[in-house]
Amino acid sequence: MTDRILDYLRRTPADGPRLVVDLDVVERNYSAFAHALPDTRVFYAVKANPAPEILNLLASLGSSFDCASVVEIEQVLATGAGADRVSFGNTIKKERDIARAFELGVRLFAVDCVAEVEKIARVAPGSRVFCRILCDGAGAEWPLSKKFGCAPSMAPDVLEQAQILGLTAYGVSFHVGSQQGNVQAWDSALATAAGIFREMAERGITLSMVNMGGGFPAKYLRAMPGVPAYGEAIFNALRTHFGNQLPETIIEPGRGMVGDAGMIEAEVVLVSKKAETDEIRWVYLDIGKFHGLAETMDEAIRYPIRTNRDGDAKAPCVLAGPTCDSVDVLYEKTPYDLPVSLSIGDKVLIEACGAYTTTYSTIGFNGFPPLASVVI
Amino acid sequence: MTDRILDYLRRTPADGPRLVVDLDVVERNYSAFAHALPDTRVFYAVKANPAPEILNLLASLGSSFDCASVVEIEQVLATGAGADRVSFGNTIKKERDIARAFELGVRLFAVDCVAEVEKIARVAPGSRVFCRILCDGAGAEWPLSKKFGCAPSMAPDVLEQAQILGLTAYGVSFHVGSQQGNVQAWDSALATAAGIFREMAERGITLSMVNMGGGFPAKYLRAMPGVPAYGEAIFNALRTHFGNQLPETIIEPGRGMVGDAGMIEAEVVLVSKKAETDEIRWVYLDIGKFHGLAETMDEAIRYPIRTNRDGDAKAPCVLAGPTCDSVDVLYEKTPYDLPVSLSIGDKVLIEACGAYTTTYSTIGFNGFPPLASVVI
């Protein structure tokens, strides 16, 4: 974690949990993606963290943006970035939201069925659409369900219908699953995408673009490959499946762009045991599932945690949040090793919290305010 | 569902999902609790729905309030109810929050360990404390973990320590699990509580109160016993275990007070299939897990849903929310029967949404605003 964040926390003590994001790390991550895949456009997944300072920085660095809603599109346009740098990447859109995006200048839309194509044809005529296909997500720590995308066999019909209705059938997208640890995960999806390109060519329609989605990991407790390893594997897969006719390509990092740029400072509220004879302690923090750490759901994401007593002996504990909700437990099935000396009132630092924390926070469950956030 | 809500929705069409809560139903529920257990004080669990109109109504009806935080205490005091009608029921409290509650006049606090007793003794001298004990939660649709409460064998030591430190060891609390369908669930917990009363008497300390918690169900799809059945079973259990020396008693209904008083109006955004050969449709609404329907987590709560096409043939579908998040699926393991004719743009009414919806809503995940709420 960055000295800048530690410095900031020391200089500005505060009550209550707070996220601090270091823009230098975001800039470093953007550069890593740009260098690893120099011919690929980066569309930052705004939903990961839409803080204006982050959007402004990425806009100034030349990033494009993957938006899930009209509000996110407006947040991006507020940076001064043009609508040509926006993809409306949600496959589930109200027709009036598509119309509003079109009004704002957006011309690139995700679809995964004919009904969505029809909406776009009605209110965003002439736009480019890409069809999202299902992908098995093997190897991801947060695998995706079938919620987004259609079977690859259905994609050519969806794209052909777009062309028939006056849209531009522009390409194919997929997502290999969030926090994807296997750099080869893109290979089979790119093979499938290349097959759809060929099928469309046989139908007389030339596709241009492959949107290779997100999935690039942040560094939590488990070691992960670096961005260059992803770049190399993806480039090799592109060459394997598209040969010399490489399509335009897009990636949509969110977690990989901002995850390790943020750190949450929290406080120990209580340390207790449930019975005199219990071996395991419960440690309660002033932040939990409902105020930023939602991704501990099913203990999926395991955040690194630092304390001022890390030199002391450690023992496993159940780690929980502060709300009157029994679901608000962070790590229980696999208890978390923390110093035995950890005490009420101690501050703890939770690392790699830049993505999917502020936005997942409830508006005020139990009367606790949403997660505070500072960008430095 | 109430005609008042249906009338309101007809008269005031609006864009986007919204919760409408009918105060008449809340009043009816309060009366049902007051009649079923006439000697028991009702402490409404504010976290279920802290809308000012609901708190004002309940304050005027004579209710007391179970609060999870200083903000909730302030919300209750804003109704004009005195601090003697407040219980700070969270067992996990910062010492400075206890101090603030004490300053505001609160004198009743939950504990489940000696460390929490010590905080209260330091900053809320002379207050009453009750010790929460663990309860197995069998029969609950949303069973509780071990997060709150200590083993019953530990409770006498916790309470004795309170007395030693100048507090009043006031009683015992437990929670039989949320959405508890078994009216007998209170029996074994009351037996345990009576045992702690006897043990304390042997130590020369007379306990006064049993806080019997919440757990009273709302009516979702599955039929549940009515409030009178709970009242009768609880009264019988009290007589069995406390004989003629009935303690003061408290209940803390949240879901049971407001759950069935609210209805969410939502809109169908997309209906699609993932492959031409799929039998099952996906129906996407403009509300999901992150904007009010968090309690569909693990498909725990199954909301009744009405449409304008309920006379038509029905077929199972996967029901999902509108965000770019694969977790945002409401019912998939057990698909939901909805009319085959259900179409994009149709409104749907989701019943029994008065509790744990607005407060669980994220502050704006994916750029979608928090759940709108109207109280009529």
UniProtKB/TrEMBL annotation, chains A, B:
One Gene Ontology cellular component: cytoplasm
GO molecular function list: ornithine decarboxylase activity
EC number: 4.1.1.17
Keyword DNA repair listed: no
Alphabetical UniProt keywords: Lyase, Pyridoxal phosphate
Gene3D superfamilies referenced in this protein's UniProt entry, alphabetically: Alanine racemase (3.20.20.10), Lyase, Ornithine Decarboxylase, Chain A, domain 1 (2.40.37.10)
Domain of life: Bacteria
PROSITE patterns assigned: ODR_DC_2_1 (PS00878)
Positions of modified residues (N6-(pyridoxal phosphate)lysine): 47
Recorded family membership: Belongs to the Orn/Lys/Arg decarboxylase class-II family.
Cofactors named for this entry: pyridoxal 5'-phosphate
Pfam families: Orn_Arg_deC_N
Transmembrane segments: none
Active-site residues annotated for this sequence: 324
Protein name: ornithine decarboxylase
Reactions catalysed according to its record: L-ornithine + H(+) = putrescine + CO2
Organism: Labrys okinawensis
Pathway the protein acts in: Amine and polyamine biosynthesis; putrescine biosynthesis via L-ornithine pathway; putrescine from L-ornithine: step 1/1
InterPro entries according to UniProt: Ala_racemase/Decarboxylase_C (IPR009006), De-COase2_N (IPR022644), De-COase2_pyr-phos_BS (IPR022653), Orn/DAP/Arg_de-COase (IPR000183), Orn_de-COase (IPR002433), PLP-binding_barrel (IPR029066)
Domain Orn/DAP/Arg decarboxylase 2 N-terminal: 24-258
Any single GO BP term: putrescine biosynthetic process from arginine, via ornithine
